[in-house]
Amino acid sequence: MTDEEECVDFTAAVKSYTINSDGGSKRTIYTIACNLSIPTKKKNNPKVYQWTVDKRYNDLQDFNSKLGALCPYDIEKIRFPGSHIFVWDKFAESFIKDRW
Length: 100
Hints:
With 100 residues, this protein is an alpha+beta fold. It is built from 4 helices and 3 strands. The protein has a 3-stranded antiparallel beta sheet with strand order 1-2-3. The chain is elongated.
């Protein structure tokens, strides 16, 4: 096997979102589709795991920060969307989609 074939491959992408109202406060929940591919001894037949998670932006931001502390050289190449500090309506569809 070459080094490329032996690498574990992980991807995650926002697939959808919902806006939930809980006791008067609104929250945007992002559905993240994850895919983990692990090489096996059989050529071109990796073990693949797929799952989804539902998370708020703050949860994802915290996770990104923790990953950055563990592997800063890998994480610095990943663009993480900014906060909503200067946004008039953080629940506007255009703002939410821009975060993807």
